[in-house]
Amino acid sequence: MKILLFPFFLVYRFVSSVKNFLYNHNLRHSYKAPIHVISIGNIAFGGSEKTPLAVHLLTFLLNNGFKPALVTRGYKGTWEKQGGILSDGKKIYAGWKEAGDEPFMVAKRIPQAGVFIGKHRFASCIKAHKMGFNVSILDDGFQHRRLHRDLDIVLYNPEEKVALRESPSSLKRANLLMLKTGVDTNQKEKIKKKYPQAEICEYSVICKGFYKIDGGEAASNIPSEIPLKDKKLLAFCGIARPDRFFSLIKDEGLALEGHLSFPDHFSYPPYSLKKIIKKYKSLQCDLLVTTEKDAIKLSGRKELEKIPIYYLKIDLKIEDCFYRHIFFFLKKYNI
After folding, report:
1. How many CB atoms lie within 10 A of CB 282?
2. Among 177, 178, 256, 278, which residue has the fewest nearby CB atoms (within 10 Å)?
3. Closest listed residue to residue 75, CA positions, set 238, 217, 260
4. How far apart are CA 161 and CA 167, in angstroms?
5. Distance, C-alpha 147 to centroid of its chain
6. How much is the average pLDDT of 214-225?
7. Can you tell me whether residue 258 is helix, strand or coil?
8. The pairing of beta strand 68-72 with beta strand 114-117
9. pLDDT of 239-294, one tens digit each?
């Protein structure tokens, strides 16, 4: 698959280089929204904890008296082109099919935050501002240079061998670089010297527990009462880097009998559920485990009614320098 996608990666990198050249030399200009914008992004293809960081940051801002909104494209949702308001911080107006799986997951997890969908992120920021939100979190926004951002946060793992959307030299645009805990000390020092304009903070992924999907709803406030360490599990997911999810389960010391992976943002049509159930029965497992993002697409599925199915909720543990930098940003703009 990587070999087949290699030409696509090359074309994407070339287009990114041309676009960056135009913006860097003021041949193209960014639009400044009437609301302050914090962008969360990366330079690698695939997942890199951008959504967990957005959730963490939205929660942090809410807990400190701010009114934040997530501004996101809503990839593969029916609202992606036309745009829409998924949540006004009081009510959720649509589902994952309209908004996309990750935005809907955020809206369910943080009902007090606004969630605005659509590829025209500038228009979404205007809507958020008119509705009284005072900070917008731009999801996967590092390459979206059409919209001016006041703070660029970039998740970066120099030791990970993955295809890149753009050259590491683009990290000179970042204000805050988030490195996953475990990066070699010498490597970290090199990054500090190479990108002196950026604050460097570390983070790690932590498990918040396994939660049961009950009554067709992902009951995020009801912890598992089943001692999972005594059970045989079949794990499955439709995310960009499934091995990360499977590794988290193993790190929890659970008996992972088997696993299945599907394409990112997978919608789980009936044939896929049959495949999951067939493997579940053949391995004589006790329950199914999936991700929170996948769980929202499995609620109410009759095929799974008689099978215990849980999802793993994750969060990030972040160095204090991250919060200091966010407070400095908020104070700088008198938000």
Report:
1. 11
2. 278
3. 238
4. 14
5. 19
6. 45
7. strand
8. parallel
9. 989 999 999 999 988 989 999 999 999 999 999 999 999 999 999 999 999 999 99
**Residue found under tokens 């999951």:** 276
- Whole-number average pLDDT of the chain: 91
Question: What's at 272, amino acid-wise?
Answer: S
- CATH class of the region 2-197: alpha beta
What is the spatial distance between Cα 106 and Cα 52, in angstroms, rounded to a whole number? 9
- Please name the residues in contact with 301: beta carbons below 8 A apart, sequence gap of 6 or more: 268, 273
Mark 292-325 as b/e (b = at least 16 C-beta within 10 Å): bbbbbbbbeeeebeebebbbbbbebebbeebeeb
The amino acid present at 184, given as its one-letter code, is D
What secondary structure letter does DSSP report for 27? Answer: S
| Across 295-303, average pLDDT | 93
User: Which residue type sits at 144?
Assistant: H
CA max distance for the chain = 61
Give helix then strand counts, H and E, for the chain.
10, 13
Nearby residues of 236 by Cβ (< 8 Å), 6 or more positions away = 259, 260, 261, 262, 276, 288, 289, 290, 294
Residue 117 one-letter amino acid: I
Please list, in sequence order, all residues whose beta carbon lies within 8 angstroms of the beta carbon of residue 281, skipping any fewer than 6 positions away.
Answer: none
**What dotted CATH number matches 205-316?**
3.40.50
Q: Is the dihedral of CA 327, 112, 209, 40 positive or negative?
A: negative
